[in-house]
Amino acid sequence: MFARGTFRFIGYVLWVLSFCLVYSREVMAVPDIQAWSTASGLRVFYLKTEGLPLVDIRVVFDAGSARDGDQYGLANLTSNLLDTGAGSWTADQIAARLENVGAILGAGASRDSAFVSIRSLTHPEKLKIALDTAHEILVHPRFDTKDFDREKARALLQIKQQSEDPAEIAEIAFMKQLYGSHPYAHPPEGLKDSVTGLARKDLVDFHREHYVASNGIIAIVGDISRDDAAAIAEGLSVDLPKGSPQAALTDPVMGSVGQTLNIPFPSEQTHVFSGALGMKINDPDYFPLYVGNHILGGSGLVSRIMDEVREKRGFAYSAYSYFFPLRVLGPFEVGLQTKNAQADEALKVAISTVKGFVETGPSDAELDAAKKNIIGGFVLRLDSNSKLVSEVASIGFFNRPLDYLDTFTAKVKSVTKEDVRRAMKARLNPSEFQTVLVGGGAK
Amino acid sequence: MFLRGLHLLYVLLTLGLVTAEANGVHEFQLANGLKVLVQEDHRAPVVVSQVWYKVGASNEYGGITGVSHMLEHMMFKGTKKHPPGEFSRIIAANGGRENAFTGQDYTAYFQTLEKSRLSISFELEADRMRQLSLKQDEFDKEHQVVLEERRLRTDDQPHAKLQEHFESVAFSNSPYRNPVIGWPDDVSGLTLDDLRSWYGRWYAPNNATLVVVGDVVPDEVFALARRYFGPMKPSELPKLKAQAEVEQLGIRRLTVKLPAKLPFLLMGYKVPSLKTAADEREAYALEVIAGVLDGGNSARFSSRLVRGQQIAASIGAGYDLTARLSSLFSIEATPNEGKTIPEVERALLEEIKHLREELVTEEELARVKAQVLASHIYQLDSVFYQAMQLGTFETVGLGWEKIGAYVEKVNAVTADDVKKVANQYLVDERLTIGHLDPLPLPEGAVAPESSVLGGGHVR
Fold first, then answer.
1. If I label B18, which of A5, A10, A229, A262 is the partner at 20 to 30 A Cα–Cα?
2. Are A209 and A61 in contact (CB under 8 A)?
3. Is residue A169 part of a domain?
4. Mean pLDDT, chain A, whole residue set
5. DSSP state letter for B277
C-alpha cells in the first residue's frame, strides 16, 4: 500500500518539477552573505532579500549571562534597561518614536549573547527614525535610577513567577546539576539574591565593557542595497567604542554524575529532565550528533523517544531529546511530563531508548529518513526574512564559515551510520546522566 | 486576474503603499463543495497547505466537550490506506513539517513543504477526510496522551486554570463557556463512537476549506485539488442553530485559589466580533482600543500603569476580531510586588472610564494606524501566517475578502467611534472579573538521591 502510494506521488512530483524548473534555479540559490567591518570595527553580515519593503537588523554582543561573573542576572537586566531611556529620550519618547513609524525593537540576553533587533519598513524617513533611535539605545543607554529600580523589581517578580512553574524549576535545577560552577549553570534571569544585590553602576560598567565593536556583530537582511546596508552599519556603530573581545569561556566539566534530584511540587504531572553535557556550536561532530538526535528524539512524532513514550504507551503529550549547542559544550537533554504515578516508568522507557540508540546506532532506514527530512526541509529554514536574519546573525556571531548554509545539506548527506554511532557513543553515557524530577503532587 | 494581482502588488510595493487589495487571493470551488484558496508568494520555493474544517469546541454540547480536539489527535492514527503514524512518516521523509490545531471555531491540519511536494499533502489529507480508521487500541493510547495534554496545558498552569473558570463564569449559555480541550470528565468519558459520529457529521469537503500559500501557480493547485479532493463525497451538514449569549445583568466576579507565587487578574467585557457586530465599524473600533491600551511600550497600559504608576509588572489587552460568535475584550495583569489585585483592578477600570469619557488623541490614533500598516507588511513575511488568516476568515464565515479591507477599515476609525464603542460595550453590565489568589507552595528541594538509573557515584 505504501509503495503504490509513493509511486503515484513521484510521478506527480516530476510533472510539477518540469513546470517550476525555471524559477527554482533562481530562488533555490542559497543566500549569498557578504561580510565587512565598520570604521569602528564592528563586523557586518549582510544579505539582500527581495519582495517585501522591510529590513531586519540584529546587533549581537558577547554579553550574555555567561559574562555575569558572580552577579547572576546582570547581563539580562542590562539588556532590559536599554530601551528605558537613552540619549536625550525617556522610555515613553523612545517607544513613541519607534511605534509611530511601525518599527519593532527587540532586546534580550541568553547564555552566550545579548542582542538588539530592529524590524522596520524600508521607507527612508521611517527607517531613519528607527535607526537613530536604535543607535542611542545601543550606544547611549541612560540607566536612570528610577528605570533601574522599576526594571529590577520586575526582574525579581519574574524570578518569583518561575518558581511557580514546575517546568521552569526543573530546567533551572537541571542546568545547575550539569554545570556546577560554570558560567552556564545559572539561569540568565539570575537568582533572587543575586538580582537583589545588583546596583545601577554594575549595569553601566557591564554595558561599557561588553557593548563594544570588537565584541559584537551586526546582521542586516532585507530589501536594501549593499551601500545602504553599509550606511546603516556605520550609522548604528558611530561612537561605539572599539573595546576588546571577551576572553574565551572555559570548557565545562560535570562535577558529579548519575545523580537524581527529586523536587516535590503540588502538580498533577511530574516534569522529568535527564541528560549530560552535549556539544558546542562549532563541534567537529556537529553533523553526526545533529542527525543522530534527529532520529532519537528531535523529529517530533516520528522520533524513537516519541514513538516509545507517546505513540506506543500514551505516557506523555511531549517527549523529546535535544542537543542545545552553545559556544562551549551545551546541554543534551531528554525531557517529558507525565502523571505523577508513572514518572519513574516513563523515565525508564525514555532512558532505555537512549541506551539502545547509543549502543547500536540508527538503522539504514532511519538514517535515510532523517536525511530526507533534514535535506528536504532545509528550504523551510530560510523562507522568511525573520528566519534569515537569525541564521545570518548566528553565522556571524559564532564565526561559522560564510558558506555554512551552502554546505549544510552536503554535510548532512555525508553522515554515515558509523559516524552517528561513534559520535553518540563517544558523547553520551546514559548511566551517568543527571536527572531532575519536579512534581509528585500535594504532600 | 492572476497577472493583474501580481502587477498591482508590484506597483504598490514600489510606492510603499501596500493595501490589502494587493492580496491576490485566488478562489475556486469543487463540485463537492470544497473551497480552495490560493495565494502566491514566490520569495522562497516553499508551500504551506492547510485544511480547515468548520467544526470546533463551540459546536460541542454538554457531555462530549473535547471531542473535536480528541478527533484531531486521532486523525494521525491511520486510514484504510495508510496505517497509524504513516502520515507523519511520509511528510517527514519529504522534508515537511506538519501539525494540527483545534479552536472554538475550527479544526485545522497543515503541512509545510518544499513546493514540488504539494501533491503528497493533498493525497494524504484527502485520504483522511473521509476514510479514517478510528481503531479502539489506537484510541485507548491516544486518550491517555490527551489526558496528559490537559494536565500539562491546564491543570498544572494557574493562569490557564483561571482562564478556564473565567470563561465558564463570563458566558451563561454561549458555547464559548467550554474549554477547547474539554472538561476533565467529558474527556475521560469520550468513546470511539463519540468520535465516529463527530467525524461522520463534520468531516466532508463541503464543510472544509483548503488553503495553499507559497511558490505555486494557482491553476496547477486547482487541478491538483480537483484530482485528489474531487472524488470525496459531500455530506448533509447539520444546520447551525443560533446560540446567542443571554444578556448579562450585572458585573460577575470569581476567585480561583491555587498553589502559585503571584496573584493574577483577568477582566473581560462581552463584545461583538466582526462577524456578529450589527455595524462592522464597532469591531474595528474595538481593535483600535486594543492598540491604544496595549499596542506597544508607548500604549496607555505600559506608559501609564507599568512605568508611570508602577502598579503592575505586566498588563495585556486582547480582542478577538475573528471569533464566530460574540466574544470577550479581555485584559490581564500581574500586580507589582506590594500592590494588590483590587488596586490594579481600580487602575484598569479607571483607564476604561477614560475611554468612555474622553476622546483618544489624534497622536494615539495615528500611532495605532502606523502600526497596523507596518504589521500588515511584516505579516506577509510568513507564508504560514498568511494561510492562517485566510483559513480563519473563511472558516468563521467572514470570507477572505475581509482581510483585504482590514487596513482601510482600521484607518477609518475615528476618536468618536472609539468613545462610542467604549460607552456601549466597555461597561459594568458586560464585565466579568477573575482573581487568582495564590495558595502557598512548598519551599526548597530534597537532597540528591542516588540515581534510579543505577549510576549513583560521584566523580
1. A229
2. no
3. yes
4. 92
5. -
> Rg of the Cα trace of chain B?
24
Residues B192 and B276 in one domain: no
Dist. CA A178–CA A332, nearest whole Å: 10
Q: Which residues of B are catalytic?
A: 72
Q: Do B316 and B408 fall into the same domain?
A: yes
Domains identified in chain A, total number:
2
Mean pLDDT value of segment A271-295: 98
Q: In what order do the strands lie in the sheet with B35-40?
A: B25-29, B35-40, B208-214, B46-53, B107-114, B97-102
Pick from A106, A136, A99: nearest CA to A121? A99
Residue-number span of the structural domain to which B369 is assigned: 252-439
- CA A19, CA A383: separation in Å to the nearest integer? 21
Residue B201, domain CATH? 3.30.830.10
Q: What one-character DSSP code corresponds to residue B57?
A: G
Query: pLDDT digits over B54-86, tens only?
Result: 999 999 999 999 999 999 999 999 999 999 999
CA B292 centroid distance within chain: 22
A20–B18: do the CB atoms touch at under 8 Å?
no
SS3 of residue B185 by DSSP? helix
As a whole number of angstroms, the distance between CA A270 and CA A170 comes to 10
Among residues 40-69 of chain B, which lie with CB inside 8 Å of chain A?
Answer: 41-46
**Nearest CB to B453 within list A52, A258, A268:** A258
Is residue B164 included in any domain, yes or no?
yes
Decide if pLDDT at A443 tops 60: no
Rounded to a whole number, what is the distance in Å from the CA of B399 to chain A's nearest CA? 25
CATH number of the domain to which A114 belongs = 3.30.830.10
CB < 8 Å to B84, chain A: 311
Alpha-carbon distance of B292 to A154, in angstroms, equals: 23
Q: What is the rounded average pLDDT for all residues in chain B?
A: 91
Question: Which residues between 227 and 256 in chain A have a beta carbon less than 8 angstroms from any beta carbon of chain B?
Answer: 254-256
Q: Are residues B259 and B220 in the same domain?
A: no
Are A292 and A164 within one domain?
A: no
Give the separation between CA B214 and CA B49, rounded to whole angstroms. Answer: 9
CA distance A72 to A64: 11
Reported as a single tens digit per residue, the pLDDT across B34-46 is 999 999 999 999 9
C-alpha grid cell, residue A230: 553599509
Q: Amino acid identity of A1?
A: M
Res B443: pLDDT = 61
pLDDT for A155: 97
Query: Which pLDDT score, from 0 to 100, does residue B16 have?
Result: 30
Q: Are residues A155 and A45 in the same domain?
A: yes
Tell me, yes or no, whether B168 and B64 share the same domain: yes
* Cβ <8 Å between B458 and A257: yes
Structural contact between residues A424 and A295, judged by C-beta atoms closer than 8 angstroms: no
pLDDT of residue A255: 80
Domain contains A277: yes
- Name the residue with higher pLDDT: A25 or B311: B311
Give the pLDDT band of residue A121 (cuts 50, 70, 90): very high
Biggest CA-to-CA distance, chain A: 70
The neighbouring-strand residues paired with A104 are A119
Question: For position B446, what pLDDT does the model report?
Answer: 45
Amino acid B4: pLDDT: 29
Q: In angstroms, rounded to a whole number, what is the distance separating the alpha carbons of residues B226 and B28?
A: 10
β-pairing verdict for A43-48 and A216-222: parallel
Kindly provide the b/e burial profile for residues A239-266, where b requires at least 16 CB atoms within 10 angstroms of the residue's own CB: ebbebeebeebeebebeebbbbbbbbbb
Interface subset of A 62-91, CB within 8 angstroms of B: 83-84, 91
Total count of residues recorded for chain B: 459
In this structure, is residue B319 part of a structural domain? yes
B395 and B328 share one domain: yes
Q: Is residue A97 part of a domain?
A: yes
Q: What is the pLDDT of residue A31?
A: 74
Count of C-beta atoms within a 10 Å radius of residue B234: 15
